[in-house]
Amino acid sequence: MSDAMSDQERIESRAHLLPEEAAVGSEDAEAQAEAILAESDVRESDRNAAPDTILERRTSEGTVTPIEPPD
């Protein structure tokens, strides 16, 4: 048998609410888990799929103003 969990096992595992989720409640924890895992799978397969995500690739030279030596 594979080490990978089946989709149903993943959903059941994720359906246990995190403390933050339990604080606000969930009408259907399994449906919530399924949606979270589906979105996670999309993001994992396509790193540009996250909404409002801008991936910047720059070095520290591009983010810090160089200090000018004294005259």
Secondary structure layout plus pairing:
Layout: H1 7-14, H2 19-24, H3 29-45
Task: Describe the protein.
- The chain is mainly α and 71 residues long.
- The protein has one domain.
- 44% of the residues lie in helices and 0% in strands.
- It has helices at residues 7-14, 19-24, 29-45.
- Helix 1 packs across helix 3.
- The protein is elongated, with a radius of gyration of 21 Å.
- The mean pLDDT is 78.
In short:
The protein has three helices and no strands. It is an all-alpha fold.
List keywords for this structure.
0% strand
Sketch the topology as an H/E string, one letter per element.
Answer: HHH
Helix content: 40-55%
Structural class: mainly alpha
Mean model confidence by pLDDT: 78
Count the DSSP helices: 3
The number of strands is 0
Report the biggest beta sheet as strand number plus sense, adding barrel if it closes.
Answer: none
CA radius of gyration: 21 Å
> First CA to last CA: what distance?
71 Å
Tell me the strand percentage band: under 5%
Task: Note the overall shape.
Answer: elongated
Unreliable stretches (pLDDT < 50, length at least 5) are none
